[in-house]
Amino acid sequence: MVRFLKRGPSLDKGREEMCEISGRQAQSLILEDTGGNEGNKIFRSHGANMGCPPDGQQIGWALDRSSSNAPKSRLGKGGRDGMPSEMELMKERFVKLLLGEDMSGGGKGVSSALALSNAITNLAASVFGEQRRLEPMSAERKARWRKEIDWLLSVTDHIVEFVPSQQTSKDGSHMEIMVTQQRKDLLMNVPALRKLDAMLIGYLENFKDQNEFWYVSRDADESENGNAKRRDDKWWLPTVKVPPSGLSEVSRRWLLFQKDSVNQVLKAAMAINAQVLMEMEVPEVYIESLPKNGRSSLGDAIYKSITVEVFDPEEFLASIDLSTEHKVVDLKNRIEASIVIWMRKMHNKDGKSSWGSAVSLEKREQFEERAETILHLIKQRFPGIPQSALDISKIQYNRDVGQSILESYSRVLESLAFTVMSQIEDVLYADSVARDPSHIDSNRKHSLLSDSDTAGMVKKLDPKEELEKLKEAPTSMTLSDFMGWHFDPDAEAEKKDSGNLSNMEKLKKPPNIVAKKFSYIEKLENLGGLRSPTARH
């Protein structure tokens, strides 16, 4: 329950009364841009759900529940102990979607696609926004996420297309008819995203039994915090503490295993999100804002680096200043704008358009491929960076509800996966500093690139390929499970009896544990509640 003081109707008497608002009411977390200060956050909701007013200010008659003239919320009836029921909460949520977040009903709301995208984004912000430690989600937050994301995803059950099917009549003859089926992109990606969702929450559950690292609040005193104060830009997060000698070898290997598992989920979510964004149409508003040629978009220095005879994307990025997040996003915006310009020029090569150019078609295709390579390299080297101007424009002006749901759902899972992976790297960094204090000034940069990627050309993330890789690793493994997975009890007993330290080399995975392999789709179908709807006549 959120409590705040508000002025009563009798201001002359100076009486103040307490106003209670149910914490179960859905609220939208809105980031107000006031002079670039990202710390100014307010809660906004429509209708009866209002946020807490600043000190000394009065919200108005809409919050004066004691007045008989005040409008009564529809959520106040039918609930237990005055609390809104689940059905009423769901009604309110879908009313907001139908009205396009315009509760005045004047038709000035956003499109249904953008309203659903905002609803999923705001739900994830309110549920996962406080996930600042490697620990399981509370049962209340987990139940709320499951319930409300199911409400929003239920829209995809009714986005269908016609597909051919065979119908057998009573006399045994066969006839081809058209039946409705969930749209192909939703049929494939919604179950996959649900699977990634369940895996991420399962990875957080794995940390319930660990006791080798803990967190110190940023407000802790000097004696408790020690020299573990955060030295990066995320000063508001709690600081990780490990034993003076660092983590044990088993815990360190388990954390690396968890990091690899979360990293694979991150790559799969990124691949789905990139694919959906690529399929969205480029808005005319964005195209009209572009310059007439790629050189103007990139700048002379970057343009010359891309159009040289011998091009190396690694050397190109090494020559660019990418020390801050703003510079990375700026380069990404320039690269994407140049790709759109070159693509349009290639499509308009036969027409007399103002986009025309004297550069040959072959050269332009080569420049476009190089720019695509740089873009893929940036996305994998700097995961978690803000969205580009092109992505924001596509999301804002997209009218396809199915694509909007896939994009927002994959984006919030990508954000959660990156957050969990960053928290695991914070623990590994604290362990590294405990074992060697000289590492305290080292930079912590998150990257999806492996050694094989940096040695050669970066490969574009493919959703099917990344999802297939998830079949090889266990979906959930606690620290105790990991210890049993890597250590042979017989070898440990033999070592204890003989006293020979060389028997440590016999540590291995038990050979008798052989899991039956299923295809990815079979695994999804075996999970209750994740099956897509069957064909409807």
Could you give the order of the helices and strands? EEEEHHHEEHEHEHHHHHHHHHHHHHH
Number of helices: 19
Quote the average pLDDT. Answer: 74
What portion of the residues fall into strands of 2 or more residues?
Answer: 5-15%
Q: From the alpha-carbon coordinates, what is the Rg to the nearest angstrom?
A: 28 Å
Content-based structural category: mainly alpha
Number of strands: 8
Q: Uncertain spans, ≥5 residues at pLDDT below 50?
A: 1-77, 350-356, 451-457, 499-537
What's the overall geometry?
globular
Main sheet, how many strands, which sense, barrel?
2 strands, antiparallel
How would you describe the oligomerization state of the chains in this entry? single chain
> What is the rounded distance between the termini?
47 Å
Tell me the strand order in the biggest sheet.
Answer: 1-2
Helix content: 40-55%
What does this structure look like?
The protein is built from 19 helices and 8 strands. The chain is globular. Helix 4 packs parallel to helix 14 and helix 6 runs antiparallel to helix 16. Helix content is 47%, strand content 8%. The strands form 4 sheets. Strands 1-2 form a two-stranded antiparallel sheet. The protein is mainly α. Keywords: Guanine-nucleotide releasing factor. This is Rho guanine nucleotide exchange factor 8-like. One of its GO terms (molecular function) is guanyl-nucleotide exchange factor activity. Residues 77-441 form the PRONE domain. Pfam families: PRONE.
